[in-house]
Amino acid sequence: MGTRKKVHTFVRVKPTDDFAHEMIKYGDDNKSIDIHLKKDTRRGVVNNQQTDWSFKLDGVLHNASQDLVYETVAKDVVAQALDGYNGTIMCYGQTGAGKTYTMTGTTENYKHRGILPRALQQVFRMIEERPTHAITVRVSYLEIYNESLFDLLSTLPYVGPSVTPMTIVENPQGVFIKGLSVHLTSQEEDAFSLLFEGETNRIIASHTMNKNSSRSHCIFTIYVEVHSRTLSDEKYITSKINLVDLAGSERLGKSGSEGRVLKEATYINKSLSFLEQAIIALGDQKREHVPFRQCKLTHTLKDSLGGNCNMVLLTNIYGEAAQLEETLSSLRFASRMKLVTTEPAINEKYDAERMVKNLEKELALLKQELAIHDSLANRTLVNYDPMDEIQIAEINSQVRRYLEGTLDEIDIINLRQIQEVFNQFRVVLSQQEQEVESALRRKYTLIDKNDFAAISAVQKAGLVDVDGHLVGEPDGQGFGLGVTPFSAKPGKKSKSKKTFKEQLRPSTPPPKPVAFEDFKNERGSEINRIFKENKSILNERRKRASETTQRINAIKREMDVTKEALNFQKSLREKQGEYENKGLMIIDEEEFLLILKLKDLKKQYRTEYQDLRDLRAEIQYCQHLVDQCRHRLLTEFDIWYNESFFIPEDLQVALKPGGSIRPGMVPVSRIMSLGEDAQDKFSQLQQVLLPEGPDSVAFYNAKVKTEQKHNYLKTMMGLQQAHRK
Ligand code: ADP
Ligand code: MG
């Protein structure tokens, strides 16, 4: 397979008592023919006409028996067909030179039978020798006459005459002729009957249809399909052996033929020259297009010519001097064919049904294997089948409980379950998103901040003020809720109007998102800068950690590969026998290098791993800083916001630097009640409770925070009421 072959060319010389010894000479190796033509004296004194030719071939068959011809020409091609290689054997030559004798032989004398019956015999003999394979044989017999197709086996009672003319059809499996009967034959005898039927029809047709049999091409095809019997192998092979008896190659019509003869001659000349073009094109690797469709002969043989099949051309010639001109022409054709190379390839196909069966078998086996692993790992029997609705609903409920906090963790069972858990996360998330949105819609009119027409309509109706703030709402409580401020873009805003601090205290406090932007540019600028800085450090560390992780994974993979190679080397050494020298194991250089490599990789792995651990600690620390900063930013903002818009002037004095209260550090509740110091209370609490266990800190921390928030809100409500009065 895959090796390039030449088209095999042989010449068979028809036996004669009148052999032109002076004109036709064979080479010593029987692989060449030299032709010598006597000078044509009629052409005058100056005569440049060529008189000597030498043709190189694969073999010259002179006085060869049918037996020898078969051995030399056909045996290998037929044998290889059972291995999946298409094969084509063609007889070429002028009428009467022995093409039909070579192909079919005489049907009266068994000894003189030709290639066709011998090929059938060989196929059936080989089937007998291969009980491990189920091999089917089919045959068809096609005649092409004046570019029309005839089924030479259509006369069989179970075939019946075809109503529509036959057509050549191409599909991915190859070329076939629609309407041509193909006959399954289970034994040699049946195959012979078919052959004789076809031969008889050829002769009858030449009488009844006034059809000259030497004017048509006849293609006998043996189709072979080989399935393995013992193996459950889904691969199977198919092949075709085409045995072609071509129409006479003599150039008719040159001497004033007319009518039918002229028509036949035109068709034959054309189809034979197209045949030559196609074969030559096939042998030319650079050529992409091969002109198969130019005539019925080449189109029919498309997947059996040159290219990827074994091809043999047998040229039948006369040995007499009188036929020398046609003989020369035939030999020229043969030597052109000899230059053509082919690349035979196996026609391998897949039996879909067998493949499914095999895969099912393997699946069952793998499931069993998994069950064994599960029981070895002491896991209760895990089901690996696709999940049903009830199982999916159960996972959905697990995910919901997990999100609510009533379920601490979701047990991992198998890959399918993990995938479904993620799936359900997505389902729950999108449901929640929808719920939030519809809740908002129930409560607020949501307008796209870029939809200016809608905005101005709402403004006209007096529902919102210029900032997009709902009229009648005392504050823009809750970030991002309610109508998004139309002028929320900080850049645009700072250009168009003064910040709130620069204005007199407004009667209506600005919405929090807007005020927050101002805060970040003013009092909160320093803490905001630190917050951003910490965040960028955190992101950078995270990126580095992810890169390190990738490197670690790569090293790990390489370690695995190296380990495997090492194991392989070891097993090789054990198989080949080990050497010991003074109690030391001798290993070869390759194994030694692998050990060194593995050591090196391990070292790299350790270093990288240490780096990653350091990075992780740093990330944790940075994350903590960022969280703290964020918290600080928001707390300070709240204080600032309240100072700026709610806390009465007189109280503010106390908050001024140098005043009795340090701004920014004291909760508003303290300012208002000025009795208890929650911070102090918390420190006391910590000191008392810490010995209970460090874990309690988070708990109490949260408790105090909630209390603070609660107090704060209460105070704010009071303030707002006071403010309105
Ligand atoms: P083609 O098919 O090329 O027109 P045929 O095979 O019909 O030629 O041969 C013409 C005649 O010559 C037939 O009677 C055939 O039996 C005979 N003949 C051809 N070749 C041989 C041969 N090698 N030995 C004996 N007879 C032959
Ligand atoms: Mg013939």
From TrEMBL:
Q: Which CDD domains match?
A: KISc_KIF9_like
UniProt feature coiled coil, ranges:
349-376
Subcellular location, record wording:
Cytoplasm, Cytoskeleton
Q: Where in this chain does the record put each Kinesin motor domain? A: 6-340
Q: What is its main location?
A: cytoplasm
UniProt record similarity statement: Belongs to the TRAFAC class myosin-kinesin ATPase superfamily. Kinesin family.
Q: What is the protein name for this chain?
A: Kinesin-like protein
Q: Which organism is it from?
A: Felis catus
- The organism's taxonomic lineage, starting at the top: Eukaryota, Metazoa, Chordata, Craniata, Vertebrata
Annotated gene: KIF9
